[in-house]
């Protein structure tokens, strides 16, 4: 759980021009607050914005939403979506809390209830989401997701509509150079929900898969990354579990020699629609992360580059076009280790350490590795050693500059966690 933090917190934090009270679970650092206004998915020419438009173009008749605030209640982020009380995502080591009643959304699913409540039957929603994480080339505490959903009226006409749509989509897919490894639409381990008509639920699961196979063709096939001209585009469906869907699925796409997991999806839990006050409807939803897909489509080697304001990065991209990123040069790494004893009773999660590093060094750190950890057999005190890899994406760092940053990291660790450096 949380770490004892000897240094006092400010009484309020300012986010998007408003003050919010802090409390003893506040863990949102300035480095994260500063990212909130940036909204990369709305920046013209940015790869994330191009990918978002590409996805939207696969769903031209859906509502396209993108301006919901990232500040949500834990209730909305978790409880409304049937997350159990002991779900690890709720912990302060995994999520950013402004205070006990307000957090940064950890996924776009958090907006399902309100969007259904508004009456939208088919919609896409793009937004920035926040998760505390370690530091490496493919994880960043802020990333972007697209959520999509479609609901049908749960009566004979609704069923006819889904079945006709399935026939239409199947015919279109049959003309494409795509090979799909499927799993059953429903099974014992991936069941129809209690209260759902099994025929309807299965047709909806089928509609979800067909619709997403088309999305994948749009993004990875013709008009997107161009797979399928010679080798077929390969897609595989996998049974999954999410608290807010059943049956549930994950999808992987074979791209550049590897299976890439791209999204989670399923038939929406009836509880979600009930909470939204939507009656007599049944439908599907999916959620996908933009960075992971954009990194492979545009050959972007490091997730920090999405946040770069360097013209050598930004000027390479044109809105609506998938192009290969040309690295401008890789500057040298500078490794610094820090070893320390923790005071008895103070715990420090790896994510706590990474937040300190990020706060002091920002994007100058490429990755952080824990290289040693032990407990003294006599005193029971814990010792940690972390190796920080400093490397700028834009310039060479001098050893002096890195030493200064490293000194600040060490002072912050002493201040915040009362560590004793070895
Ligand atoms: N919200 C999930 C995540 O961030 C992804 C997801 C899974 C979204 C299933 C959905 C869904 O809409 O039906 O991991």
From TrEMBL:
<keyword id="KW-0030">Aminoacyl-tRNA synthetase</keyword>
<dbReference type="InterPro" id="IPR045864">
    <property type="entry name" value="aa-tRNA-synth_II/BPL/LPL"/>
</dbReference>
<dbReference type="Pfam" id="PF03147">
    <property type="entry name" value="FDX-ACB"/>
</dbReference>
<dbReference type="InterPro" id="IPR002319">
    <property type="entry name" value="Phenylalanyl-tRNA_Synthase"/>
</dbReference>
<protein>
    <recommendedName>
        <fullName>Phenylalanine--tRNA ligase, mitochondrial</fullName>
        <ecNumber>6.1.1.20</ecNumber>
    </recommendedName>
</protein>
<dbReference type="GO" id="GO:0005759">
    <property type="term" value="C:mitochondrial matrix"/>
</dbReference>
<dbReference type="InterPro" id="IPR004530">
    <property type="entry name" value="Phe-tRNA-synth_IIc_mito"/>
</dbReference>
<feature type="domain" description="Aminoacyl-transfer RNA synthetases class-II family profile">
    <location>
        <begin position="49"/>
        <end position="327"/>
    </location>
</feature>
<dbReference type="InterPro" id="IPR036690">
    <property type="entry name" value="Fdx_antiC-bd_sf"/>
</dbReference>
<keyword id="KW-0067">ATP-binding</keyword>
<comment type="similarity">
    <text>Belongs to the class-II aminoacyl-tRNA synthetase family.</text>
</comment>
<dbReference type="GO" id="GO:0005524">
    <property type="term" value="F:ATP binding"/>
</dbReference>
<keyword id="KW-0648">Protein biosynthesis</keyword>
<keyword id="KW-0809">Transit peptide</keyword>
<keyword id="KW-0547">Nucleotide-binding</keyword>
<keyword id="KW-0496">Mitochondrion</keyword>
<dbReference type="GO" id="GO:0006432">
    <property type="term" value="P:phenylalanyl-tRNA aminoacylation"/>
</dbReference>
<dbReference type="GO" id="GO:0004826">
    <property type="term" value="F:phenylalanine-tRNA ligase activity"/>
</dbReference>
<feature type="domain" description="FDX-ACB">
    <location>
        <begin position="329"/>
        <end position="422"/>
    </location>
</feature>
<dbReference type="GO" id="GO:0000049">
    <property type="term" value="F:tRNA binding"/>
</dbReference>
<keyword id="KW-0436">Ligase</keyword>
<dbReference type="InterPro" id="IPR006195">
    <property type="entry name" value="aa-tRNA-synth_II"/>
</dbReference>
<dbReference type="Pfam" id="PF01409">
    <property type="entry name" value="tRNA-synt_2d"/>
</dbReference>
<dbReference type="InterPro" id="IPR005121">
    <property type="entry name" value="Fdx_antiC-bd"/>
</dbReference>
<comment type="function">
    <text>Is responsible for the charging of tRNA(Phe) with phenylalanine in mitochondrial translation.</text>
</comment>
């Amino acid at each position: 759980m949380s770490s004892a933090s000897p240094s006092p917190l400010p009484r309020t934090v300012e986010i998007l021009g408003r003050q919010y009270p802090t409390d003893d679970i506040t863990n949102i650092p300035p480095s994260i607050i500063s990212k909130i206004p940036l909204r990369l998915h709305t920046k013209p020419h940015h790869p994330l914005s191009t990918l978002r438009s590409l996805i939207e173009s696969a769903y031209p008749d859906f509502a396209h939403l993108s301006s919901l605030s990232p500040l949500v209640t834990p209730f909305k982020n978790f409880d409304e979506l049937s997350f159990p009380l002991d779900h690890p995502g709720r912990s302060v080591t995994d999520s950013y809390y402004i205070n006990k009643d307000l957090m940064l959304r950890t996924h776009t699913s958090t907006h399902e209830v309100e969007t259904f409540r508004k009456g939208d039957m088919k919609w896409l929603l793009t937004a920035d989401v926040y998760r505390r994480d370690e530091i490496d080339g493919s994880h960043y505490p802020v990333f972007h997701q697209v959520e999509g959903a479609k609901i049908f009226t749960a009566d004979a006409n609704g069923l006819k509509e889904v079945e006709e749509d399935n026939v239409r989509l199947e015919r279109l897919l049959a003309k494409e150079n795509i090979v799909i490894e499927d799993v059953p639409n429903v099974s014992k381990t991936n069941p129809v929900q209690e209260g759902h008509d099994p025929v309807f639920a299965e047709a909806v699961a089928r509609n979800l898969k067909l619709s997403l196979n088309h999305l994948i063709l749009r993004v990875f096939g013709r008009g997107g990354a161009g797979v399928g001209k010679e080798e077929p585009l390969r897609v595989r469906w996998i049974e999954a579990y999410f608290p807010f869907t059943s049956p549930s699925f994950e999808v992987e796409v074979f791209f550049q020699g590897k299976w890439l997991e791209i999204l989670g999806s399923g038939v929406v839990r009836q509880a979600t629609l009930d909470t939204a006050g939507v009656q007599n409807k049944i439908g599907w939803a999916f959620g996908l992360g933009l960075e992971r897909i954009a990194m492979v489509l545009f050959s972007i080697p490091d997730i920090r580059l999405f946040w770069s304001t360097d013209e050598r990065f930004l000027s390479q991209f044109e809105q609506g076009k998938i192009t290969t990123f040309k690295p401008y040069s890789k500057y040298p790494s500078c490794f610094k280790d820090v070893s320390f004893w923790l005071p008895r009773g103070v715990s420090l999660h790896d994510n706590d350490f990474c937040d300190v590093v990020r706060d002091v060094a920002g994007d100058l750190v490429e990755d952080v590795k824990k290289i040693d950890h032990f407990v003294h057999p006599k005193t029971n005190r814990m010792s940690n050693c972390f190796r920080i890899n400093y490397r700028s994406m834009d310039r060479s760092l001098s050893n002096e500059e890195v030493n200064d940053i490293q000194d600040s990291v060490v002072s912050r660790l002493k201040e915040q966690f009362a560590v004793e450096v070895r």
